[in-house]
Amino acid sequence: MKVEDVVCPFCGCLCDDLVVEVDQNRVIGVENGCTLANEKFMGDRRLENPIRKEGRSWSDITYDAAIREAADILIDADRPLLYGWSGTHGEAQSVGVHLAELLGAVIDNTSTVCHGPSIMAIQEVGHPGCTLGQVKNRADVIVYWGANPIDAHPRHMSRYTTYADGFFVKEAFKERKVIVVDVRKTESSAVADEFIKVERGGDYAILSALRAIVRGKRDLIPPKIAGVTREQLFRVADICMQAKFGAIFFGLGLTMSPGKNKNVRNAIELTEELNRHTKFTISPMRGHWNVYGSNEVFTWITGYPYAVDFARGIAFYNPGETTSVDILRRGECDACLVVASDPGAHFPRACAEHLARIPTIQIDPHVNATTHLATLQIPVAVTGIDAEGTAYRMDGVPIRTRKLFDGTYPSDLEILSKIYARVKEAKGS
Amino acid sequence: MRVILKTRPRAKPRIPIEAETIIPQNFLRKNDIRVYEGNKERKLEDLFFITVEGPAVSPDQVEVILTGDTGVIKRVGEYMNAGRIIVEGDIGMHCGNFMSAGEIIIRGNADSWLAREMRGGFIRCEGDAGHYCAAGYRGEKRGMRGGTVEVLGNAGDFAAEYLSGGEVHIHGSCGDLPGVEMRGGTLTIGGDCLRPCGNMTGGICRIFGTAHQFLPTFRKNGTEDVQYGGKHYRMAAFRGDIANRGKGRVLIRA
Amino acid sequence: MTGLWVKNAYVIDPISGIMGEIMDIAIRDGKIVEEVNDGAPVIDAGGCLTLPGGIDSHSHVCGTKVNFGRYMSPEDMRAGRTARKGVMHVTSGYSVPTTFGNSYRYSSMGYTTVLEGAMAPLEARHTHEEFTATPHQDMLANTLFDGNWSIMEAVRDKDVKRAAAVVAWTLAAVKGFAIKLTNPGGTEAWGWGEDVHSIHDEVPHFGVTPAEIIATMIQANELLNLPHSVHIHCNNLGVPGNYQTTLDTIGLAPDLNRERQSLYLTHVQFHSYGGSTWQDICSKSEEIARAVNARPQVAIDMGQIMFGRTTTMTADGPMEWKLYMLHRNKWSNHDVELETGSGIIPVYYGRKSLVNCVMWAIGLELALLTKNPWQCMLATDNPNGAPFVKYPEIIALLMSSRFRENERNVIDPRTEHFVPLFAIDRELDWYDIAVMTRAAQAKALGITRIGKGYLAPGAEADIAIYPLKPDELDPAVDYQQVMAGFAKTAYTIKRGRVVARDGEVVVEGANSTIWSRADVPPEYDLNQDAEFVKKFEQYYTVRMRNYPVQDVYLPRGLSIRTEASL
Q1: Distances from the Cα of C244 to the Cαs of A14, C29, C157, C239, in angstroms?
Q2: DSSP class of residue C416?
Q3: CA–CA gap between residue B156 and residue B175 (Å, rounded)
């Protein structure tokens, strides 16, 4: 059976035009997807049942026993951490947040290791953005800053930017100028009309200089900044100011290089300055397919997009203090629930070591690096394959993922709801 | 009155204690002071050995001495408006938040957000301070607004971010972007720093070491002579940040 | 479900013509009935003011832009935080509270129905998700059509029926309630960083004017027989001299509907400015009120501002940019492909700002100068003019000229030269307030047909009992008590169940989402229209099949079905 208009649960592009062929409980073919999508649908090898570590060996346990044990571990903790969430649907995230408030836990999502700095920057100066179709239909200048979409978001250029024909841009490839800013040549920089090769850590100074140039302060600019010539900066500023509609997309090259949130802030303020001359927007290239959804869900329930600490009953937010990496590095938490992400693979070593020291429960369909740190793992259905629910695309557009077949695994939502119910009962509320 | 709080040994010593209740005025009458250990509310005496010496009739006569394993205690001195707190060792995050008067002395190091959004009073940290020393809260447009913060050692990144009033003096060096978004007040850095005063719109920053990677968006504005530590220095003067129509002043030892 | 008696209630129910009588109300199965058996539990209202549940006909509480207002504002979130307590979830936020925060605060003020003022169709799913997390109010969503390409093409082709078909398809797809036009044409122009400056400016590339869009949509709305009228946020919001645009817009409204207005103008305070700059801005409330008084086919809401800190958020992207240029704090913008825009900035309205004082006066003047309270509803365009928790203060200002005089002494003393407020001695009475906070809304929205806004048998048992005894109070003098009374009900009853008591929510909510479904003949069904489908797939970035909001997002959806006259 072929299912059309399938939503891809891999990256923040959330492409919704895949055609997936299903044979009973198995995906056997994917059309329209990128290589990352194909791997997600086709290379889906699951953990078969809940497992529990005793000493150095794993044993199988039932779902009921696993849920009971997970709840008991969390209830006993004085500083539990609930981490992950970007790889599951909004309805499950919502139960996660309510679980955190009930427990007095810290809840955090993967923004903590990707676009957290972008969020902090937005909280300082706001975010002039738009939906991706606005870019597709209008933009004549595209800037990728510290991002390599061909590698990380393979269909971004063909669906939304460089190669996507739109209403006012009939022949996109001819009519659009593409500027790439990065510390090294990439596949994406190879297709750019203008490639700014900046020295590592030089983004902030380049952005400050561009702002000054757009403000007409060209006399102030020294011949070379962070490896970039003044002439190139002038040229790029002119391209941007003459654009009818410009769109900046930035990635971890900007958020995770020295200056972090201040780099992003500077890029946003450049966008604001350009809006005094023409129309310009800026957008983060969100990684996980539903990391933006976790930000949205956290926000409407708690007021904050990530790193929310309920230890005191109220919601408290302070990245650097309430962010998972910082909590783990300081060895604060005494139990951890990991849902739909793999901190074992993405966190610094000291954090992973702490996860191994404390009871760590993982709810995830697959065996991954975190499995080796965990004491308990509960396998679940994969949202977008055998579970469905809401996801938010990198530009905030909400799309409902499809369930392709009825599998045998419970969803994240079912498991979390049961843990929640048990905790609620134990807390007598 | 002198109140001595000595930490008791804890089963999980790395779980932070939140203790905004540890301010001099609370010891004047209150005998049921609560703090939090992780998500559990505790009585002060459950976590500290408490010794009280002498009387006091007003909070400015109260001196609180914190000793023991104090490096994970957060928010000590929050909203403090009189009296004195002496920390014998290190102190946790957010020491002196919103403080408006009184004095805090830290003999060891202070963790991040020392003197966050401080309004008045005096804080001296004899060791190093963490990140965001004398800075603000996420999303707010003003950081520290008044009072004095003195750090005898070094400070981390983003020292005096959004500084809007008062004086911050780091005797040692600062990390990245001290004085970023600064809009008023005075920041003095005895040692070196990286990329000072990005996006500043007002205030004065004085740097007596080396300012590495000084941003290109500051306009040279002659020289100025200043006194520091009993010596005369000739300083190169700059105005900026031009990227932001800023009218701040940066003085860097010539 | 067992029954419930509310006894000894001082009832004002304008729709039923009850102007302040002590009476008993019987409730069964969530509805008001003639009587229930004597064994049913009794709430003794003790002669307190008892009104139908409050209805907010224009508020921003759920959806993409509202949530971004939270997302970008940790400083606002920390300004109002409560811990989990009983059945109440954690809340955060002052001007843009979390969904539960909004819901609890509205509930404790006696509000049981709220209309979200602006939902971008492409992002409707988000609005509905937040509706579900706003459990104590029945929710409705104004759906944005101001920059809708298909609509503008139909307008250009002078094809009203086509416009109606687009509306019908869209409302059904996104489970929207009514047509909202926010700066019609202006939000499309903002796609290029431009705006329109009068109702006769042409929208770039589309060859239509705002006036044509508005006139066509009013006709289309009536062809579909929708419960509400077109709901408009006029062009030129916040621009000195914009009252002329507002008068021109009012002039476009024909009288097409016997039951209600044909055009609802929202937050009119922001659209009633004279002068030509911020230096000579003055009130034109008298001109606007005169136009409203002369035309029963229009209704307005105040868009009152109150002094203090808040967050502005609107689909009117170009307006937010202009406002940002004045305030220079922080600015978010979010244009939505083929449909609309939006912007958010935090603001502070100060008593020391002459402009803000003039704005404050204009909102009150509109309410006091509109003769018929059914034509002017109380709202702040929450949170744009002020967070809705300020409603009790606004009520008190409208009921007491003494209160207004006291305020006069603490605002910019020049204000009186620019506004007529202090020459108006009208004081609204309890009846006027009951009309302006629920009855008029129910009528204007066309939801009396589903039992909203009144207390006669057959109505939904949404009831607010305020700790105010109208017989013992003189609101002109005791305005502080009036304010306190409207801030916290003694009881809020939603669909027959006590949901809040003395300012605290006591049960978990279970709201409904109300949407409009106009049935059109097959030749107007755009799902079958090859041209529409082709353009959709070409220019949207979401597949047409993935666009509609699935039923699962409306666990208690309630559609008002109409038959289109196409």
Answers
A1: 45, 50, 28, 11
A2: G
A3: 5
Structural domains in chain A, sorted by start: 46-113+289-427 (3.40.50.740), 116-284 (3.40.228.10)
Outline where A126-177 has alpha helix (H).
Answer: 132-138, 149-152, 156-159, 172-175
What per-residue confidence (pLDDT) applies to C98? 98
Q: What percent of chain A has pLDDT over 70?
A: 100
Tokens 């990707």 -> residue: A114
Q: Residue A43: what pLDDT? A: 85
Interface probe with A: pick from B39, B97, B133, B180, most Cβ of A within 10 Å: B39
Report the pLDDT averaged over residues C416-445: 98
Which residue type, as a one-letter code, is found at position C39? Answer: G
Q: Is the preceding omega at residue C383 within 30 degrees of 0, hence cis?
A: yes
How many whole angstroms separate alpha carbon B168 and alpha carbon C462? 58
Question: Hunting for tokens 């000595």 — which residue is that?
Answer: B6
Sheet strands (E) in C378-457: none
Q: Does C548 touch chain A (CB under 8 A)?
A: no
pLDDT category at B237 given cuts 50, 70, 90 is very high
- What structural domains and CATH numbers belong to chain C? 60-450 (3.20.20)
Give pTM, 2 decimals. Answer: 0.98
Look up residue C556 and give its two tokens: 């208690």
> Do residues C342 and C299 lie in contact, with contact meaning Cβ atoms separated by under 8 Å?
no
Give A7's DSSP letter. P
In chain B, domain spans: 1-111, 121-254
For chain C, how many helices (H) and strands (E)?
18, 24
Contacts of B139 in chain C (CB under 8 A): 72-76
DSSP A21: E
Q: Which among A209, A165, C148 has a CA at the least distance from the CA of B214?
A: A209
Best of C71, C72, C78, C81 to substitute, by most chain B Cβ atoms within 10 angstroms, is: C78
pLDDT for res B31: 77
Distance CA A35, CA A17 (A): 15
Decide if pLDDT at C1 tops 80.
Answer: no
**Sequence-separated (6 or more) residues with CB below 8 Å from residue A26:** A405
For residue C2, the model assigns a pLDDT of: 73
DSSP character for C492?
Answer: E
User: Closest to A134 (Cβ–Cβ): which among C99, C133, C191?
Assistant: C191
Residue A398: partners with Cβ closer than 8 Å, 6 or more residues away? A90, A293, A296, A390, A391, A392, C123, C125, C126, C129
